[in-house]
Amino acid sequence: MDSNQTTTTTSSSSDLSHRKRKKKSPPSPPPPSLQKWRSEKQQQIYSTKLVQALRELRISQTPSSPSNPRNGRAVREVADRALAVAARGKTLWSRAILSKAVKLKFRKHKRQRITAPSALTHPVIATGSIRSKKQRGATVMRIKAKGLPAVQRKVKVLSRLVPGCRKQTLPVVLEETTDYIAAMEMQIRAMTALLSAVTSPTEHEEEGQTHVLG
Amino acid sequence: MSGRRSRPRQSSGTTRISEDQINDLVIKLQQLLPELGDSHRSDKVSAARVLQDTCNYIRNLHREVDDISERLSELLANSDTAQAALIRSLLTQ
């Protein structure tokens, strides 16, 4: 299972090296993974998943406090989970989101091996402590070699923002960030369209949905 | 068994990532950002700047998603027509 994950996660990095081998120049057209998030079809797929998940979500119908902060969070989690599913498990952040959602045996989702049973209660944040020490040493040395501590600090902050990247190396964090940003942009576009479809169902030309509320 | 060690076939050497690789990633990131992405001023914009803007942008995106989630949740809680509209929009996709 560990080697499985290694292979899976290597693919995204080996993609990068594969691209490097092909052309030395920085790729100006967005790589296919980013174009995927910008395509109409992907947004429709996501919207569909989102609507299905939202329908199953039971918002507490207390008329006294309709704007329950918990509900907003619940919707956000549903949306994030749908987004992670749309990523088809190819990225760290999507797997991290899904692991968070499961909260059970998530060891198989990530690369690290967690042996301590207490780790089961910390889905994303805990990494195998033994391994992380080695990683941390290697990571810090690598980034110091890049020089600027400013860059290092910012990458660390960035890694905290992107789910599942807290203890990753710099290139991994950057790679995950690009995919994460593109995915979130699509998420916002889809949710906005959904919102306008729900609020004013008679006028909607957003995604070509033509439903007329009689 | 350290996955970290066995992985780096693709990056030359065990713990050496080339500057170029990082630079390329930063450039790719820069192109995604709304302000800096349009012009190819990769020389003048420092990596730190790009990273800082990226952090801010991600925080913005998070906030936007939270906002939209809030509004959606209010709508869903309040009206049944919202649910019906959701279902309808699902069917027409």
TrEMBL record, chain A:
Span of domain IBH1-like N-terminal: 41-101
GO cellular component, one term: nucleus
Domain of life: Eukaryota
Feature: compositional bias, Low complexity: 1-14
One Pfam family from the record: IBH1_N
UniProt key word Nucleus: yes
The name this protein goes by in its record: Transcription factor bHLH147
Compartments (UniProt record): Nucleus
Positions of region (Disordered): 1-45
Any one of the GO BP annotations: regulation of DNA-templated transcription
This protein's UniProt keywords: Nucleus, Transcription, Transcription regulation
Protein's UniProt keywords contain Transcription: yes
From TrEMBL, chain B:
Superkingdom field: Eukaryota
Keyword Transcription in annotation: yes
GO cellular component: nucleus
Record InterPro entries: bHLH_dom, HLH_DNA-bd_sf, PRE
GO terms, molecular function: protein dimerization activity
Pfam families per UniProt: bHLH_ILI
Primary localisation category: nucleus
Protein name in the entry: Transcription factor PRE3-like
Species whose genome carries this gene: Raphanus sativus (Radish)
Species lineage: Eukaryota, Viridiplantae, Streptophyta, Embryophyta, Tracheophyta
